C-alpha cells in the first residue's frame, strides 16, 4: 500500500514537471514571436491574451497549490504576466489611435469596414452559436473602440417584462447592414440601446441617422458620452420608456429582445401606426423574434433559419 502511494506521488511530480516544462516552452515562444507585437496582428494577440489568462495562469496556480517547483512557477508566472501586460499595452495604444482616426477622419461605411478588417476578421452572418449569443474577437475589437470601458451601475428597477441588458454581438450588426440595406434618408432606431454600442456601430457602418431608446439613465448617459467622444453627431440617445418614445421619423427598428409580453405588444402597436404612412422594417435578434413574427401587419423579409439567435428582418405590409 505504501509503495502504491509513493508511485502515485512520483507520477504527480512527473506530470507536474512535464506541465511546467511545456509552460516554459510556450512562454519562451511568445516572448520570441515578433509578429505577436505587431499592432496589426490583433487576432493573434487576443488569442494569446486569452490563453495566458485562462489557461497558462490557471494551470500555474493549480500547480502552485501542490507546492511543486514553487520558485520556477513564480518566475514563469511573472514572465507570463509581463507578456500579457505588454500585449494589452499595444492594444491600448492601438485603440487610442483608432478613436482619434474616427474622430478626425469621419470613418463611416466602406472606410470603416476596411479599417476594422485591417485588424480583425469580419464574418457577418456566420453564426457559430446557433443556440446561444456567442462573442468573438470582433466583439473584443469593437469593445476596444469604446472611449469608456467601465460599465455604469443601473439606477432603476426594471419592469418584470423588461430584460436585463446584454450587448448585441458585433457580427450581428455587420450582418444587419448586409441583410437590411439602408439609404441615406433612413432613420434607424435601436430600441433598448443599452450602452449604445450597436447604435454607434450602425452609424459607423452605414453613415445614417441613428437614435437609441434606453430606459436606464446611467446607460443612456454612458452611450451619449461615447458618441460625443467619437464625434458622431448623427447618433443620439433618448432616455425613455420604449412605450413613451416618438418613433414617427423612424424607418428601421432594431430589437435585441429588450422586453417581452404586453410591453412588446404595446411597442409593436406604436410601430404599426408609423407603418400606416410609410414602409418600415423591423429587425430582431433573440427570443423576441417569435412574438414579432406573429404580427399580421408584418412579413418576414430575410431569415435563414428558425433558431432564435439568428437575425430576422421584417417589413410592413
Strand content: 5-15%
| Strand order of the biggest β-sheet | 3-2-1-4-5-7-6
Number of strand segments: 7
Series of secondary-structure elements, N-terminal to C-terminal:
HHHHHHEHEHEEHEHEE
SSE layout and pairings?
Blueprint: H1 2-32, H2 42-64, H3 70-105, H4 110-117, H5 137-145, H6 170-179, E1 187-191, H7 197-206, E2 209-214, H8 217-229, E3 235-239, E4 252-255, H9 261-275, E5 281-284, H10 288-293, E6 298-302, E7 312-316
Parallel strand pairs: 1-2, 1-4, 2-3, 4-5
Antiparallel strand pairs: 5-7, 6-7
Helix pairs in contact: 1-2, 1-3, 2-3, 6-7
Can you put this structure into words, describing what you see?
Helices cover 51% and strands 11% of the residues. With 317 residues, it is of the alpha/beta class. It has two domains: 2-105, no CATH class; 137-316, Vaccinia Virus protein VP39 (Rossmann fold, 3-Layer(aba) Sandwich). A seven-stranded mixed sheet has the order 3-2-1-4-5-7-6. α1 runs antiparallel to α2, α1 packs parallel to α3 (70-105) and α6 (170-179) packs across α7.
Main features:
single chain, 317 residues, alpha/beta, Rossmann fold, 2 domains, 7-stranded mixed beta sheet, 7 strands, 11% strand, disordered N terminus
In short:
With 317 residues, this protein is of the alpha/beta class.
